[in-house]
């Protein structure tokens, strides 16, 4: 009788435990994914801050120390390595550094960055123009290169339906990096001296490196499972294979047109507001801090809304927000409406639209990165994105000199309108091509 009672009660107790075990597994999985998302977000921030600090924050200091406008302009050439990310991706994809080689590539390049921080921070180089440019150029190469294995790991470790969120977090990290590198570190340097920003950037990088050191062994079985044992194709065949993916050509057209025009508007917002009579400190606060926080917030909101809206609707809706922001900003220049409130509202709306569009672009970039060609596909897409992002502001600057702010904004608004038209035509193709990727999510995640 005791045996019967024991046997009868045991399955009942197990039945109560099974749902609890299932809930526990779900919670553990979500906590692991959240930890990975935060880790990738932190590392994207740590890699973005040095370039922003040196190329967008430092010109203020340079001007104070007698640098000419030409010298400051030529210093921006240190950003050129970003155009060659597709070439940096080749050794990352093909040169194996043992099991978990993407993590090893990332750690090696971060170690190079730390060495460059130490070299640059040893003494004040603001008057040694050549050495400052050389070390900044080297930092740009190392940070650009390290971005490839970092985001290749994001494609490999995160399930497909988490990669849109990773894109939004990365976009938010870029906006926060602009606040830190373009504002906070400049203040710290003014108060604590030349070395302080480099120490802080080094500490932030080390904090991001430590989890990757611990996760190297964890990556080994997943990498072995995902690797293709077939012989590597030639590099040109790899790039051609990217464009052979369903929807890849339509996506590339969207990638080239969606962000650069609103990005160019953001670049010229500070001069525009200054020329409208606003004080420098007020412009820096509104665009640099409030605008940056707005962009980061709407990057996260945009990433959360994509699964609810669907990719096809999100593509059109986000570009419509960007288009509306540019129309209102253009009207604020053309019409006799006066007062800072209207211009500030337009600037905040531009930041919101840019945050939503960039979150979508970064997320879909991961979607169109093949798991067997993580580094190559990611490097190629980011190179295309960077080339258009750098080319449009140069064109916009020429328009500003010839047509003024009103004419420049009108042309850039027409550019976003063209991107919106392209989005309406390709959205269904791009959305359909992502469905198999979402269906093929990692079972082990």
UniProtKB/TrEMBL annotation:
Q: Name one GO cellular component term.
A: membrane
InterPro entries, sorted: AmpG_permease/AT-1, MFS, MFS_trans_sf
Q: How does it sit in the membrane?
A: Multi-pass membrane protein
Pfam families on file: MFS_1
From which residue to which does any coiled coil extend? none
Stretches that traverse the bilayer: 33-53, 73-90, 102-118, 130-150, 171-190, 196-215, 251-269, 284-303, 315-335, 341-366, 378-396, 402-423
The primary site where this protein sits is membrane
- GO molecular function annotations of the record: transmembrane transporter activity
Q: Where in the cell is it found?
A: Membrane
Could you list this entry's UniProt keywords, alphabetically sorted: Membrane, Transmembrane, Transmembrane helix, Transport
Q: Which domain of life is it from?
A: Bacteria
Q: Which PANTHER family match?
A: MAJOR FACILITATOR SUPERFAMILY DOMAIN-CONTAINING PROTEIN 3, SOLUTE CARRIER FAMILY 33 ACETYL-COA TRANSPORTER -RELATED
* Protein known as: MFS transporter
List the source organism. Paracandidimonas soli
């Amino acid at each position: 009788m005791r045996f019967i009672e024991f046997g009868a009660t045991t399955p009942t107790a197990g039945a109560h435990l099974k749902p609890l075990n299932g809930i526990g597994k779900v919670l553990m999985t979500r906590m692991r994914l959240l930890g990975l998302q935060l880790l990738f977000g932190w590392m994207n921030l740590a890699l973005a801050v040095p370039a922003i600090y040196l190329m967008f924050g430092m010109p203020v200091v340079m001007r104070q120390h007698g640098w000419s406008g030409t010298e400051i302009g030529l210093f921006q050439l240190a950003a050129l390595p970003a155009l060659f990310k597709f070439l940096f991706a080749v050794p990352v994809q093909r040169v194996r550094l043992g099991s978990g080689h993407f993590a090893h590539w990332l750690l090696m390049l971060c170690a190079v960055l730390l060495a460059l921080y130490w070299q640059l921070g040893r003494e004040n180089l603001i008057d040694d123009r050549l050495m400052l440019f050389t070390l900044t150029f080297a930092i740009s190469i190392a940070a650009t290169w390290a971005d490839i294995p970092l985001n290749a790991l994001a494609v490999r470790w995160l399930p497909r339906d988490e990669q849109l969120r990773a894109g939004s977090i990365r976009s938010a990290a870029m906006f926060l990096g602009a606040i830190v590198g373009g504002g906070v570190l400049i203040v710290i340097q003014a108060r604590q001296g030349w070395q302080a920003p480099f120490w802080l950037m080094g500490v932030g990088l080390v904090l991001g490196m430590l989890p990757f050191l611990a996760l190297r062994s964890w990556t080994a079985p997943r990498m072995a499972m995902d690797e293709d044992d077939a012989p590597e194709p030639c590099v040109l065949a790899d790039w051609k294979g990217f464009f052979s993916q369903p929807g890849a050509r339509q996506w590339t057209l969207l990638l080239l047109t969606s962000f650069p025009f609103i990005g160019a508007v953001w670049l010229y917002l500070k001069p525009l507001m200054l020329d409208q009579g606003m004080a420098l400190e007020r412009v820096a606060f509104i665009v640099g801090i409030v605008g940056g926080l707005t962009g980061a917030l709407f990057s996260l909101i945009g990433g959360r809304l994509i699964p609810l809206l669907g990719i096809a609707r999100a593509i059109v809706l986000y570009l419509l927000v960007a288009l509306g922001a540019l129309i209102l900003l253009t009207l604020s220049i053309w019409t006799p409406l006066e007062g800072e409130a209207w211009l500030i509202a337009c600037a905040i709306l531009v930041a919101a639209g840019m945050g939503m569009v960039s979150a979508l672009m970064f997320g879909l970039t991961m979607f169109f990165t093949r798991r067997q060609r993580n580094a190559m596909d990611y490097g190629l897409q980011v190179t295309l994105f960077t080339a258009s992002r750098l080319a449009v502001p140069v064109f916009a600057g020429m328009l500003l000199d010839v047509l003024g702010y009103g004419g420049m904004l009108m042309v850039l608004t027409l550019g976003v309108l063209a991107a919106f038209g392209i989005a309406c035509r390709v959205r269904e193709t791009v959305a359909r091509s992502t469905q198999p990727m979402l269906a093929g999510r990692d079972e082990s995640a």
